[in-house]
Amino acid sequence: MRRLPIPEEVTGYELDADVRQELKSLPKTLADDVARNLVMVAQLLDEDPEKAYAYAKIALRLASRIPSVREAVGFASYATERYTEALAEFRAARRMTGSAELWPVMADCERGLGRPEKTLAMAGAPEVQKLDRAGQVEMRLVAAGARRDMGQADAAVVTLQGPELASTAVHPWTARLRYAYADALLAVGREDEARDWFAKALEADTAGTTNASDRLAELDGVEFIDALDPEAETEEGGSVDGTGAGVSGAETSDSDSDSDSDPEAGAGREAEAGDDADAADAVTDAVPAAAAQEDDAAK
């Protein structure tokens, strides 16, 4: 079996205790090998998902009957847009664990496969009631994305409404939910309301999981210019000097904000929702939960 290099400082003990407990069913040397590959998956998932996928496949060949391994392969496949493979791996993990935790990301795989109708069917399935609050919010985000995929922009707005959106409390998912709602409002022409919700998303986004600040700048007509770019010009047409005055008077958002027009997807597919970062956390922390519940009927 072809192996990939793993830094000596990676020991495998970086994994959550639950994952290490699963690996105890393997011979120690093999368990250590699998653990180190899983750590590499988690470390690379955000910055180099293709390489993370390669490490995940090695772990799969070594220990295909470990739920956390199947989940890790699922996340790596998801991050590299191999949605058919991701769905199969999440289903395999579900067979092993019986958990519904990954139901939202499985539904998002259906979106990735161009089947938003199946996504909406999953959003109404009994498994959703088994999710914790964070999982139910994630399912709502995915369902709203499916509505927009189907051209139902107004329905997407309604899908995101609920007590979690109205709450003033801040949870790990609050910024993403507010951001998604702002983006949905903008899609139906409710610009003033959208601006308010982007501001609320920014207020809750202490971890920087969204680009709400860029979207606000875009709505306000603010344009950021790189002071170190010799090609950059000020509003008057002169070159930006090296004094640090790198922002012109009228600034607009980074063009990258265009890529964030559909934040409703769950766990990692949408850049603005920080889904890759979430997936990486899931491999190190939630991977142990091996929570990938599959629904054979979902396909």
Properties at a glance:
TPR-like_helical_dom_sf; Tetratricopeptide repeat protein; 299 residues; 14 helices; mainly alpha
Per DSSP, the total helix count is: 14
The poorly predicted ranges are 234-274, 284-299
Strand percentage lies at under 5%
Q: Mind summarizing the main beta sheet?
A: none
Mean pLDDT: 83
The helix content is: 40-55%
Distance between the termini: 32 Å
Radius of gyration: 21 Å
What is the tally of beta strands?
0
Structural class: mainly alpha
> Which of globular, elongated, flat, extended, rod-shaped describes the shape?
globular
Order of helices and strands: HHHHHHHHHHHHHH
Give your account of this protein's structure.
The protein is mostly helical. 54% of the residues lie in helices and 0% in strands. It is built from 14 helices and no strands. The radius of gyration is 21 Å and the shape is globular.
Break the fold down into its secondary structure elements and pairings.
Blueprint: H1 17-23, H2 28-44, H3 49-62, H4 67-79, H5 83-97, H6 103-112, H7 116-123, H8 133-149, H9 153-160, H10 163-166, H11 174-187, H12 191-204, H13 212-219, H14 275-286
Helix pairs in contact: 2-3, 2-14, 3-4, 4-5, 4-14, 5-6, 6-7, 6-8, 7-8, 8-9, 9-11, 11-12, 12-13
